[in-house]
Specification:
The structure is a single chain. The chain is an alpha/beta fold. The chain has one domain. Helices cover 22% and strands 25% of the residues. The protein has a 3-stranded mixed β-sheet with strand order 1-5-3, with helices on one face. It has a two-stranded parallel sheet with strand order 2-4. The longest helix is centred in the last third of the chain and has 13 residues.
Length: 60
Amino acid sequence: MLTPPALREADGIRSGRYRIGGDRVPESPSARLSYADLAVALIDGYERPALHRQRVSVFD
């Protein structure tokens, strides 16, 4: 399960960068993510068996 940050940018452009963390998103203003990058992270997470059956955070 991917946990996105509270601040998501609906109209943000895809940066092609995101970070995978533990089960909690860091509480900082820099912990944000565009919906485009979230979509890529979801697909990448599906394709990476090491992340299956885990809760990880995804943020920029």
